[in-house]
Amino acid sequence: PWFRDRSQKRVTVKSVHRAEAEKHFILGDLNELYYSISGSHEQDHLFPVEGMANLFKRPWWGRTWVLQEISLAQKAGFVCGTKRLSRRCCTAALNAFKALAFVFQETAILERATSTAYQKSVAQAGFDWRPTVQLGMWDTQRYSPYPLLALLRTTCLAAIHLSPSLEATDPRDKIFGLLGLAADRGELMEFGVQPDYSKSCQDVYMHVASAILRQGHLSIFSLNHFPKAQVGLPSWVPDWSQPLSGSLQATGIDHMTLEPGYNASGLLLPMAPIFSRVRATTNVSVSGFIYDGLH
Fold first, then answer.
1. How far apart are the first and last CA of the chain?
2. I need a surface site. Which of 25, 50, 185, 258 has the fewest CB within 10 A?
3. What is the pLDDT of residues 31-74, one digit of tens each?
4. Whole-angstrom Cα distance, residue 24 to residue 31?
């Protein structure tokens, strides 16, 4: 993430990896850095905005299975027409473009400078968030792999990014396409969560939700929204087949830690929910204490 200090016109870059230190740049120096790398101060030669938009706005980036294909391959490359590009170069180009767009945006705000047509095109490019997630997951897998719940939040919460979530022709693949990446896939397998196309979408979603609850992640309840596209889902099971409109509580950069952190029960850990089968519907119940009420 980027943070700005308006008093000193300084940009701070915080890495997603805790081992890496923060990096501080003076806005003007960062702006100059990009021109130096390009070998020219001609602004129209920095990035081919239209060409990058044609690449990163392709629907291919919106496929759920692409996330696994890019992230698990030791070496990955892209072929578009007659052009070839390595995963590393593609990631670097997208990150550099986003950083330059940030610089142009901040320069306009902090220095009240008049932007050129090229600077406006970069600042307003607004590429889809999905290529960033797809390309960034390779590093995430190397340093701190996400558990399944974090992957589901990352790929399904569309409201945060104001664009569609990752998609799949078969709604069951919204789960199956992420299991190979999940850091907790071993534990999930113990709960019986594994690719099985003999099960209905409703059964898959219900089984995954119950496994996540047994892990102690009660925050999954906040991901429910109505109406549900999948008919027959219990009210406590999120419908992963459609973009989730948001959750009741935000999460940290790990997509797991709830913010702000409420801890009314002190050091007591939540008890595992109790599941029961009533007719054709699976019910879930949790226990607790009511100390007061609001009227």
1. 41
2. 50
3. 566 555 555 555 555 778 888 888 898 999 999 999 999 999 98
4. 13
Measure the CA–CA gap between 87 and 241, rounded to whole angstroms.
28
Q: Is the pLDDT of residue 278 over 60?
A: no
Contacts of residue 259, Cβ cutoff 8 Å, sequence gap at least 6 = 249, 250, 251, 252
pLDDT (mean) for 218-223: 84
- Return the closest-CA partner of residue 192 out of 208, 177, 179: 208
The pTM of this model reads: 0.76
Strand 274-278 and strand 23-26: the pairing is unpaired
Contact 202, 232 (CB under 8 A): yes
pLDDT for 161 equals 47
